[in-house]
Amino acid sequence: MFLWKSTFCIFFFHLASTQWSNYSFPKDFIFGITTSAYQIEGAWSEGGKGLSIWDYDLHQNSSLVVDKTNGDIACNSYHRWKEDVELLKHLGVNFYRFSISWTRILPLGGKDTKINDEGVKYYNELIDNLLAEEILPYITIYHWDLPQVLQDKGGWLNETLIEDYVFYARTLFQLFGDRVKHWITFNEFFQFCEVGYSDGQRAPFVSSPGVGGYQCSHNALLAHGRAYRMYEKEFKSIQGGNVGVTVDGSWCDPLTPTSESDQGAAEQFTQFNYGWFTYPILLGNYPPIMIDRIYVLSKQQGYESSRLPAFTSEEIKMIKGSYDFLGLNYYSTYLCTFSDNFSQPSFESDCGVLSSQPESWEPSAADWIKYSPWGLRELLVWIKEHFNNPPVLITENGWAYNSLDLDDTERIHYLNGCLSEVLKAIYEKECNVIGYAPWSLLDTFEWTMGYTLKFGLVHVDFESANRTRIPKRSYNMFRNIISSRRLE
């Protein structure tokens, strides 16, 4: 029975791939690839760089990472960035999404602190060389590496950080905005807020269930809105750039497709996990289901007010529509049903939905990613229907191995599957998808999983002093797709 199912799935995928290989990506559709500063740069204490929360926490306690490693050297891209640009050039991408290390530009982090000229020089050289190869830099302003000096003041739980972030963003616009025309304010609010300030599973490893994640995200959303409006007012007419934001989203199918209850659970999951951040930015406020449920549960738990902070009318006006494009990170799909079997207070209890993945789905080395590319199309359609079809740039999408994977056929299968679903979303559902960038160019330091997970289209030998890079089979596959603008 299992063999029959597997054969059927492969046969069905072959038909789907064959069908969609006849379609070209639209002429204005752009292809890129992604990394982030802490995960590839290394040089943690070189060139005048300050201490980030990841530097501090992993030096204090190496057991926070499964293999007890850190990003001190990582891919050593601070010194080997020219090799990375050559790989990008050969790959043929239109854009490269990377992040700026806050502490490499502002070692002391806060507003009105001194700019680090060596850090500016590093990013100037990278940006100028990318542009010389006709590769557009898409810069993520914040990808989780908060200056430790700001975390000492409470980090994203302290609303004063909003001013520090706006100062930092303005500094980047002033330094690089004459050449950089595409900015992403934040990467994945859920991951650095809910996982970092509520679950305590990522830096700064603060455990405040049901409270910390909401306060963090509220301040970060306001910081995003402030930065967007500041660029709009002070820089857009001069520099002519655009500012977006990246939100991670998993799709959820009902556990039992014919169950109205499970259908409701799937929608509630998406409202809480994805709408939490997209609703304020696109519509001005949190999803009504979040506002109502968290208020009621907070009262039942003895809180005087809702654990979910409220926006003022002025803040709603400021944050609504604060985007030029919406970045989407998609990896996997889940099956959902309602449940009240969660500790309280917690985000899981507030959401009230139990999500799972069947054992029969093809697994990756990451326990949270199983082969489910259809969810990407479904989420794109959901975005279109809820937000009037905004421009969506897929800023991450990837498949993990845990060993040497030069012949990475599973990754090729996954990426082809996801890109096939993107074509379906564009041509069948008229979704406004403007581009695609997989995670990631290189095998990287994968946060608390260290170097045990490999997402790169290029292998990095972390045992070698040179951090030798070797393109994988998926690198050549993606290169061919970019060149032909068709699936293989």
TrEMBL record:
Question: Which PROSITE patterns does this chain map to?
Answer: GLYCOSYL_HYDROL_F1_2
TM annotation in the entry = none
Q: Does the keyword Signal apply?
A: yes
Pfam (any one): Glyco_hydro_1
Per the UniProt entry, the signal peptide is: 1-18
Q: Which organism is it from?
A: Cryptolaemus montrouzieri
Report what the protein is called.
Uncharacterized protein
Keyword set for this entry? Glycoprotein, Glycosidase, Hydrolase, Signal
Q: Per the similarity annotation, which family is this?
A: Belongs to the glycosyl hydrolase 1 family.
Mention one GO molecular function: hydrolase activity, acting on glycosyl bonds
Its assembly, as annotated, is: Homodimer.
